[in-house]
Design brief:
about 350 residues; alpha/beta; Rossmann fold; seven-stranded parallel β-sheet; three-stranded mixed β-sheet
Length: about 350
């Protein structure tokens, strides 16, 4: 039975990955989920799997060397899937040190623990060990409008404290592969969307606000372009890289879904109107009058676009979900999980939201 150590598995992408893996492999794998359960880590995301005999949850900080070392000592870990990270650009602008601690120091702690557990006396590693570091397209900076794509060899040019911290963690993984011949891969993905996403990010924020008749805050002119990837397609890509990717390689994972932010917002309004019953009282306020343009984000990258040619050529992966289908599936999920949204948008979230948007 192969054992996966998943960091940040209670977060958005991590929890979707865990659901995907159990859906595919069932009882043939074991997953150990390590998560500190910060604001974006939610145990409710994994209620369906928490009773499984082949699933273990451990609350721990990836920066805690003693705790992480203990996990490796007590378990025969075959693969590390490293999601755990601070990931919201706005928060990184307000508090960059937290991002450096978690994303850079936390990654170093994970690399050191895995290397200490796996490396043999002669400096080699047992067959089948793999450390997969999940990163972002934001490390590459910004592209001109309508021109070019990010490739695996695109130079790094991060513009926010978040993307700089992720670039730093990527470089650490690259250094361990080069220096220690450490068995690792890096994946750089485009913007994910889907179930369980914390509503600080664009799509769940707009869904939640629109349903409540609240303003829909859009940065700048709304024409910043992102490449959108349905989260289950991302989980599939990670599994394929972990199983069959060439060691020491980086793979870009993109959705072939470039959209302007304002187009995303207008699409959400339209799909909500189509999905809600005609006699639902919320229909009355679902219109583009809710859109309000706010002061642009500092250092706001204009366009991201990933070319996933390499992963398609080598592993046969390509996204299965086009945006028109994925956004409808996502909205239906939030309809069916209204209690989940209510729970995660209480308390500290409200204070954060007011700080970010009320004075702009």
């Amino acid at each position: 039975m192969r054992t996966y150590l998943v960091t940040g598995g209670a977060g958005f992408i991590g929890s979707n990955y865990i659901h995907y893996m159990f859906g595919k492999y069932g009882d043939d794998i074991k997953i150990i989920n390590v998560d500190l359960l910060t604001y974006a880590g939610n145990p409710e995301n994994l209620k369906e799997v928490e009773g499984r005999d082949n699933y273990t949850f451990i609350k721990a900080d990836i920066c805690d060397r003693e705790a992480i070392t203990k996990i490796f000592a007590e378990n025969e870990i075959d693969s590390v899937i490293h999601f755990a990270a601070e990931s919201h650009v706005d928060r990184s602008i307000k508090n960059p040190e937290v991002f450096v601690m978690t994303n850079v120091l936390g990654t170093a702690t994970m690399l050191n623990a895995a290397r200490a557990a796996w490396e043999k006396e002669d400096g080699t590693y047992p067959e089948g060990k793999r450390f997969l570091h999940v990163s972002t397209d934001e490390v590459f900076g910004s592209l001109p409008e309508g021109e070019g794509y990010f490739y695996e060899d695109t130079p790094y040019a991060p513009h926010s404290p978040y993307s700089a911290s992720k670039a730093g963690s990527d470089m650490l993984v690259k250094a361990y592969m080069d220096t220690y011949h450490f068995p690792a891969n890096i994946t750089n993905c485009s913007n994910n969307y889907g179930p369980y996403q914390f509503p600080e990010k664009l799509i769940p924020l707009m869904i939640n606000n629109a349903l409540q008749g609240k303003k829909l805050p859009v940065y700048g002119d709304g024409k910043n372009v992102r490449d959108w990837l349905y989260v289950e397609d991302h989980a599939k890509a990670i599994d394929m890289v972990c199983e069959n990717g060439r060691l020491f390689e980086t793979y870009n994972v993109g959705g072939h879904n470039e959209k302007e932010n304002i187009e995303i917002v207008k699409t959400i309004i339209q799909v909500l109107k189509e999905e809600l019953p005609a006699d639902d009282a919320r229909q009355a306020h679902l219109n583009e009058d809710l859109i309000t343009y706010v002061e642009d984000r500092k250092g706001h990258d204009r366009r991201y676009a990933i070319a996933p040619d390499k992963i398609k050529k080598e592993l046969g992966w390509e996204p299965d979900t086009m945006f028109a289908d994925g956004i409808r599936k996502t909205i239906r999920w939030y309809f069916d999980h209204a209690a989940w949204m209510e729970n995660v948008t209480s308390g500290a979230y409200q204070k954060y939201y007011e700080e970010m948007y009320s004075t702009k």
